[in-house]
Amino acid sequence: GAHMTQRIAVIPGDGIGTEVMPEGLRVLEAAATRFGLDLDFESFDWGCGHYLREGRMMPADWKERIGGHDAILFGAVGAPDRVPDHIAIWDSIITIRREFDQYVNLRPARLMPGVPSPLANRRPGDIDFLVVRENTEGEYSSLGGRMFPGTEREFVIQESVFTRTGVDRVLRFAFELAARRPGRHLTAATKSNGISITMPYWDERLQAIAGEYPEVAWDKFHIDILCAHLVQHPDRFDVIVASNLFGDILSDLDPACTGTIGIAPSANLNPERRYPSLFEPVHGSAPDIAGRGIANPVGQIWSAALMLQHLGRDVSVWQDAADAVLRAIEAVLAEGPRTPDMGGTARTADMGRAIASHVAQAR
Ligand code: NAI
Ligand code: MG
């Protein structure tokens, strides 16, 4: 409920992660004050600095340290000149996603005011869909290997893994989500014409789960033509569900269609709430602009809004708080101040303060 303290583990990470996180917290504090929410923040200095000091990205007991929190707000990690990227990413964010069984990766794509789209003749409101990506299995498995390396007989195999549990739960999540949206429409990505075992299975489960949701209209497209449709008719989509690989592709295509990567948010969800879910901007640590105080904080702030929505379940004051943050983001994107990536001259904190002040005045 509104009056239960929600404990948030805050992991700013590296580079601009440490610059956008204070703005995310500033806006959350404004929302907490305005809507009477009880948020308790605890910060963890994990990331590449921690790795260089202690030899690992997170302490050995990281799971106990944050496993009891209600949510994790994450910035970004990566210091590619000092720590190899596969270590920085795998030993932090990917470990958290897997160990906390965050099997849904959710990315909203919405064309916002003041953000030019590379797609011609699209206005705010024309593009507003959600990509639901399976986040734990599918094509991204570690089953396989290499034999006869360096010889004529050399070969490699990597198996895809689609379990009934894994497929059904992500499809069900996507149908539930679609059922609660006004559009009540779900699109599934497939490739059953080329991938002849796992993708027909995905389609078969889709058909079965769809039967549980007669109120949701649905269709499916092969991933290749779906990419084309998203560029040509982005207005036709509402909720899109995809396997790990196809969802990865779609979720980079969507911020590309809706403007700058600096504003794109994401949620990594464990819908059953056995473990905390994690909310993070889509962008990385941006070493090319880090330290200058000019990063766009909207991706972090929008991710914080997704967190409010998740924490509040269906309690309306939390939804109101999340909506107020979204409206504040829209107002500031439209009227400024704007950071340089959006053609403005504002600093990270100017944009964060402006959004927080809209939230404080929300009605
Ligand atoms: P990136 O997203 O950090 O940067 C890509 C480009 O977008 C850069 O030119 C950057 O300046 C710009 N950009 C990104 N966010 C911005 C913002 N908020 N405001 C203004 N401009 C912004 O991706 P890149 O350069 O490929 O990776 C940098 C590091 O971040 C690497 O170490 C990478 O592994 C890591 N990374 C971490 C992620 C995570 O923590 N989940 C996700 C993606 C990358
Ligand atoms: Mg990607």
From TrEMBL:
It holds the Pfam family Iso_dh. InterPro entries: ICDH/IPMDH (IPR050501), IsoCit/isopropylmalate_DH_CS (IPR019818), IsoPropMal-DH-like_dom (IPR024084), TTC_DH (IPR011829). It catalyses: (R)-malate + NAD(+) = pyruvate + CO2 + NADH. Keywords: Manganese, Metal-binding, NAD, Oxidoreductase. The keyword NAD applies. PROSITE patterns: IDH_IMDH. Its cofactor is Mn(2+); Mg(2+). Belongs to the isocitrate and isopropylmalate dehydrogenases family. This is D-malate dehydrogenase (decarboxylating).
